[in-house]
UDP-glucuronate decarboxylase (Actinidia chinensis var. chinensis), 436 residues
Amino acid sequence: MGSELIFRGHETQPTPDAYSPKPPKPWLAVIRPIHYVLREQRLVFVLVGIAIATLVFSLLPAHHGNNHYPISVSSDSRILSESTQLTHSGFVSGFGSFHPGGKVPLGLKRKGLRIVVTGGAGFVGSHLVDRLIARGDSVIVVDNFFTGRKENVMHHFGNPKFELIRHDVVEPLLLEVDQIYHLACPASPVHYKFNPVKTIISNVVGTLNMLGLAKRVGARFLLTSTSEVYGDPLQHPQVETYWGNVNPIGVRSCYDEGKRTAETLTMDYHRGAGVEVRIARIFNTYGPRMCIDDGRVVSNFVAQALRKEPLTVYGDGKQTRSFQYVSDLVEGLMRLMEGEHVGPFNLGNPGEFTMLELAQVVQETIDPNAKIEFRANTEDDPHKRKPDITKAKDLLGWEPKVSLRKGLPLMVSDFRQRIFGDHKADGASTITSSSV
Ligand SMILES: NC(=O)c1ccc[n+]([C@@H]2O[C@H](COP(=O)([O-])OP(=O)(O)OC[C@H]3O[C@@H](n4cnc5c(N)ncnc54)[C@H](O)[C@@H]3O)[C@@H](O)[C@H]2O)c1
């Protein structure tokens, strides 16, 4: 009864006797699934295609000797291998973890190193950038232009291997790089005394940020520390094992103690987080592109002699300094970065000059009639400074090559051009100096 209510067309349906089934087609059993796969399973084919391509890419380079690279040259594959380690363990084991012979996908050319130079628009930084670019590396300069100048790096504008970022290192920054040369810091007394709190913050927070970056991307980190960490030294010449004699509350402490803290942070990141670090303790350096009126003794004397002003000597002029030409320093920094030793290393010229002797060399080079004027010495001015560079000689195979009498004329022609040439504004201000 119920079925009749639901289906009422049975009277008109053909009787079972009238039904004749179609003859079976056996090939349909094969063709139908293929049709179905072709229609509905395109994704499977895409995946199979990717698998075949991956196989081809990973097998082919193994037969090409050209795609193996020596350990001394970094490639992007190293960045990959190191960032992988970072993800897995939270730490990086640095350069030692790079496996030579890593394959670079076909069609990608091996590049030079990618290097950040903080403070790269400054005096030392810009010379370092010149050398790194000449070596074929890609360089990113990070600078807030407090004492640096665009003119120092302008000749690289337009070079695809050069980038310039206006940035203060007290703010964090993320860049994928192989090496970090950390120079950013006001370096002369005039500049660091201008804003002492900012100086110590740059040294502490700036260094912390750059070490954090090094840890995150597995980069090697080099700190440019200073001979000022020895303070007014009770040991002469200064060896790296000497802990120094520093006034923690003086007018120079923002710089001296700032650099000492930066060294501490650097070593703690090395010991605690496995970051590859290098520490250079730089002694007085001079050369082209130094700030003209920065209160450092060589730039003071040269600028004064060129302007026909008396050379101001502070105290009795018997305090000593050693003067290193900038190209020697840059060579030392690069050897330190590429070498296997953490440091600290003294980088300076052991040739020792009193301030009066330096004034004489400046007179001989620029103006024999230049007068010398004595003034009261500045607070905490160290009496003696001379690096012991035995460690750098032994472990880095480094020693300075350029004597003061050879290097000074190169600096003089740069200063002459900037004072009397297109940078006349620089020539107006008064010089306050110490024998730094
Ligand atoms: N030249 C030397 O005799 C000497 C000696 C000892 C140590 N050092 C060290 O070497 C490094 C370079 O010194 P330099 O002589 O070239 O000095 P510099 O003043 O010419 O260069 C320092 C650079 O750092 C930049 N800078 C400063 N604070 C910054 C910040 N917070 N963020 C970003 N950039 C910042 C400046 O604009 C400048 O370009 C410094 O760390 C200095 O302490 C130099």
The two ends are 115 Å apart (CA to CA).
